[in-house]
Amino acid sequence: MSETILKTPLYDLHVELGGRMVPFAGYSMPVQYPLGIKGEHLHCRDQAGLFDVSHMGQLIIRGEGLALALEKLIPVDLQALAKNQQTYAVLTNEEGGILDDLIICKWEEDCFFLVVNAACKEQDIAHLKSHLEGFDFEILEDRALLALQGLQAAEVMKRFAEPACELTFMNGCHCEFDGAPVYITRSGYTGEDGFEISVENASVEKVARALLACDEVEPIGLGARDSLRLEAGLCLYGHDMNTQTSPIEASLIWSISKSRRRDGAKAAGFLGAERVLNDIELGVSRKRVGFLVEGRLPVREGAGIFDADGNQVGEITSGGFGPSINAPVAMGYVPLSLAKPDTQLTAKVRNKDIVITVAKTPFVPQRYFRG
Amino acid sequence: MVMMMSDLKFTKDHEWLLISGSQATVGITEFAQEQLGDVVFVELPEVGSEYSQGDEVAVIESVKAAGEIVAPLAGKVVEVNEELADNPELVNESPLQDGWFVKMELNDGVDLSELMSESEYQEFTAE
């Protein structure tokens, strides 16, 4: 592991915009800009926000029979994806735990484009390569990634890349942004409508500046990125799930294609399938749920969860203040018997008992564009 | 309450004090609120509680993290800023005035020599 801190091609722009730079997954990234986390969060939901997510890993894998080969590592029906359609998926290990979560997009029958978490990218690529011998890997170190998210994202995008505005949620297209070749998908991790723009390093500053020049768009840092995804009820790898967690415990059963489950046409056949499919069939002993929090004191990662008798029954894995619902929100793991919505529990914060209530997620309505 | 920065004393914990007789009003500095980010919750002590220098007096939760206010000097809390319960954002908007935290009756003979003047504090934060 190198000790040097990495920079994305937009580092100088972040500094120019007044971004407060912090180390994150080996990169120096803006945690916030002068607008502040709360302001950025609200602005993104109400109008549009621009995120630099160039620290994430982008790669292309090619080769005959790739879909079936990848299905041994990912519990998704990749053959069934349409061209330029993508899906959220987990990368499972032999024990049915989660190595990472990722976005996988079918570019061609034998060509897939993947976006993986920054902190996991080296390990993910090694894992994929070791199981996909003979396939061609192209690691896109020369490409940056931007996310444009929010109610006005499509309105903004229309000015630069009209074809992208025809896309529905989780579809993508190759097009041009102000003359720069880009791959744009209708996706994101905020619960809002929006786009992710994969663009050459050499062009990303031009694209970012063009978007930031729009009145609707503000730059958004890691702080608001986290509060937006938390309100949207979305998992953060390494916090809400890890190599020990099965996707069923993590309440990610929706990410496992029907055809890959027991009795499906392509049942099992992926790493850790036995545990994952047993978890579906026999049920799990604990699962990830969302919590609404009484009062205004945020309940954060690591806080213990207790039942009415004072027994510790679980732990908060993500928590903070949700600016849009103007209250603290959290998620964590509890036994199945305590996982029903409206179940009241307590979380301990500095020896204080805070009442928390199991709640359906997302905490804010999803506004994905489904056409 | 109108105050000038020059009336204030500062600590290395980025707190300010306005000392008047044996009482001190305590808050956090502009620099501290900036670092902390948007404050969403403030946990205040009970009036009458006594603290030694360095004890945790109040907790500040921002969207980002939890921080604490420590007693800059030994003494007893005689008043808390109740406004902060409903409007914790006052800490960001007006850290030196409306966003004050507590008023303390200082113990006799507390040592004021460690406190910084405004210019000393500016130098300290510039480091």
TrEMBL record, chain A:
UniProt binding sites for substrate: 196
Coiled-coil region(s): none
Gene Ontology MF terms: aminomethyltransferase activity; methyltransferase activity; transaminase activity
Catalytic activity: N(6)-[(R)-S(8)-aminomethyldihydrolipoyl]-L-lysyl-[protein] + (6S)-5,6,7,8-tetrahydrofolate = N(6)-[(R)-dihydrolipoyl]-L-lysyl-[protein] + (6R)-5,10-methylene-5,6,7,8-tetrahydrofolate + NH4(+)
Biological processes, Gene Ontology terms: glycine catabolic process; methylation
Domain GCVT N-terminal positions: 10-258
Protein's UniProt keywords contain Methyltransferase: yes
Entry keyword tRNA-binding: no
Any one GO CC term of the record: glycine cleavage complex
Phylogenetic lineage: Bacteria, Pseudomonadati, Pseudomonadota, Gammaproteobacteria, Cellvibrionales
Name of the top EC class for this enzyme: transferase
NCBIfam families: gcvT, PRK00389.1, PRK13579.1
The family this protein is said to belong to: Belongs to the GcvT family.
Cited InterPro entries: GcvT, GcvT/YgfZ/DmdA, GcvT/YgfZ_C, GcvT_C, GCVT_N, TrmE/GcvT-like
Protein name, entry field: aminomethyltransferase
Organism field: Pseudoteredinibacter isoporae
UniProt keyword list: Aminotransferase, Methyltransferase, Transferase
Annotated EC: 2.1.2.10
SUPFAM superfamilies assigned: Aminomethyltransferase beta-barrel domain (SSF101790), Folate-binding domain (SSF103025)
Residue span, Aminomethyltransferase C-terminal domain: 286-364
